[in-house]
Amino acid sequence: MLSLLVVVTIGYFLGAIPFGVIISKKFRGFDLRTKGSGNMGSTNAFRTLGWKLGTLVQLLDIAKGVAAVLVATYFFNGLPFTNPMPFQDITVFRFFAGAAAVLGHCYTVFAGWKGGKGISTTAGMLVAIAPVEFAVAIAIFLLVVFASGYISLGSISASVAFPTAMFLRQNIFGVEIYGYHTMIVGAIMISAFLIYRHRANIARLLAKRENKFEKLHIFRCKHSGILGGKV
After folding, report:
1. CA distances (Å), origin 189, targets 182, 193, 194, 218
2. With contact defined as beta carbons under 8 Å apart, do 33 and 111 qualify?
């Protein structure tokens, strides 16, 4: 199991690099987790550090997910265990590495086990594994954010959209997706984990207390919605 252990370990430590904390301390002199929502992810970085540093944090967090998958691909030379399931070996390795990076970001050993929500690192993982489904999820994310102004709602919607798009492409539109049996199981698990990480946001959305990015609220409707009055 040495190969698997190496891939998972490298993936975790790549994901655990707390770029939000590092950049906020270097350029602003404070720990990002002491401001705003207390999260070290890109949403709080945008809100607290501004769009330039927020973009930098987001790109670096995305890069962690991409790097973990690339490392797994580089090290792969066959699974170190019997694989009786219909799971393609290389896809298993990639998912293990990517999931480890997401866990590293959410629970980083370098910052007291307190990390981000995992959306950007998951995005990096998914763009390296399933770029088409990732593009669909991003489109849903942008549509929801522009229609509501809520980053959290966009993230939750994108989390649901990714496995849904994969299922529809394979089973409805007949597109042959390599590693589908592994991908769909992994995608559902990742989606469930991300929604769990947003449980506090969901509670605030239902209570109409979630913070909104007004500048991103481009598509406004005149009628009241379930998320808090006229938008």
Report:
1. 11, 6, 9, 32
2. yes
pLDDT digits (tens, 9 = 90+) for 34-50: 998 888 988 899 989 99
Element (H, E) at 171: helix 151-171
Other residues' Cβ atoms within 10 Å of the Cβ of residue 200: 13
pLDDT band at 224 (very low <50, low <70, confident <90, very high): very low
- For residue range 205-214, list pLDDT tens digits in order: 999 999 888 8
Burial class (CB within 10 angstroms; exposed 0-12, middle 13-18, buried 19+) of 229: exposed
What are the tens digits of pLDDT across the range 80-90?
445 544 556 67
Q: Which residue has the higher pLDDT, 195 or 177?
A: 195
Cβ 231 vs Cβ 144: under 8 Å? no
Instruction: Record the tokens describing residue 229, joined without a space.
Output: 């009055």
| Residue type, position 185, single letter | V
pLDDT grade, residue 17 (50/70/90)?
very high
Task: For residue 224, list its beta bridge partners.
Answer: 230
Structure tokens at 127: 């763009």
In sign, the C-alpha dihedral spanning 231, 209, 162, 11 is: positive
| Bridge partners (DSSP) listed for residue 161 | none
Q: Do 29 and 21 touch, CB atoms closer than 8 A? A: no
Residue 181: per-residue pLDDT: 82
Torsion sign across C-alpha atoms 163, 196, 83, 97: positive
DSSP letter string over 92-158? Answer: HHHHHHHHHHHHHHHS-GGGTT----SHHHHHHHHHHH-HHHHHHHHHHHHHHHHHH--HHHHHHHH
